Amino acid sequence: MSLPGTRPAGVTELARVQDRLTFLYVEHCVVSRESSAITANDGRGTVHVPAAALGALLLGPGTTVSHQAVVLLAESGSTVVWVGEKGVRYYAHGRSLARTSRLLEAQAAVVSNTRRRLEAARVMYSKRFPGEDVSGLTMQQLRGREGARVRKVYRQWSQQTGVAWARRDYQPDDFESSDAINQALSAAAACLYGVVHSVVVALGCAPGLGVVHTGNERSFVYDVADLYRAELAIPVAFQVVAEGPVDVAGAVRRAMRDSMFEARVMERCVRDVQEVLLGVGAGADRSGEDLIEADMLKLWDDRSGSVSGGTSYGWDVLDASDDLLDGPDQEEP
Q: Between β-strands 37-41 and 30-34, what pairing exists: parallel, antiparallel or unpaired?
């Protein structure tokens, strides 16, 4: 029996993860569907966005989204993220594009083994310290070096833009209580987290299984986002505040969108996740599609690792059982 509705697009028919738009943030509008496009209407007009070309749709306050819009986004492999005002709070996200658990299993193996986890952490930190050898550093040494690096980046951008800087100071529950630069840093981080989250779940990884971070539902998102924070989020925040916009958060979102597109963050994110979890070299030509498009189901086996799914096993056992149940022919007494 055929299922009603439009046939979902196959993975090979969709735009690759790294070739998509980073994110689209909408608020106080109605999100619906028209053919293969997502529409957003706020009374002033309607915007059409091809769903298959979108990495993440961030739904802010005051949005109403139709069932068909969510169906289209899910079938297109686009992640839907429900966020708070100005995009600085995360509430929930949609389904993954992945059809295989290969990366998820690799992630679990890395996180559950101390030696492999330390190796993965060193790979992540090596991307932040280009040209430096971190292969022999402990986690304590890596954290100390990272802290010093980030403080240096803050000071550099403060001097370069003329924006006063004291320290990172913000209230998660009160965005407006922070000064302009801390608001900008929070907004920039939220944009970066949203895009990285969309890639992480699109590849089938678990956002909560972090390598460096732990104990939070988005630990791995923070791990990966930190690879680009000093390069993108901090500079954007200081540059935007230096321009003195009225709407700091809105200006930061637009600037982050452009910066992440120019830096090809989604493409880099796919490569970096593979390198951290699978040891795939950064120079390897791997798109990540082979890690998400295989639609297969296997059964775990304690001897061979796995066996094919969709197969009825045990006929040989049943045949033997039948023979035992029937027993040998016996003569009547």
A: antiparallel
Task: Judge whether 301 and 313 are in contact, CB under 8 Å.
Answer: no
In the chain the beta strands, taken as DSSP E runs, fall at 21-26, 30-34, 37-41, 46-50, 54-59, 64-65, 79-83, 90-93, 298-301, 305-308
Asked whether residue 226 is marked as a ligand-binding residue, the answer is yes
213 is in an annotated binding site: yes
Which residue from 194, 172, 167 is spatially nearest to 252, judged by alpha carbons? 194
Residues facing residue 276 across a β-bridge? none
The 10s digit of each residue's pLDDT in 20-69 is 556 678 889 999 999 888 899 998 999 998 887 777 787 888 999 999 99
Q: Is 153 exposed, middle or buried (0-12, 13-18, 19+ CB in 10 A)?
A: middle
pTM, two decimal places: 0.70
Q: Do the bridges between strand 64-65 and strand 79-83 make them parallel or antiparallel, or are there none, so unpaired?
A: unpaired
And the tokens for 90?
A: 């995360």
Q: Is 28 annotated as a binding residue?
A: no
- Residue 18 and residue 55 in contact, taking contact as beta carbons nearer than 8 Å: no
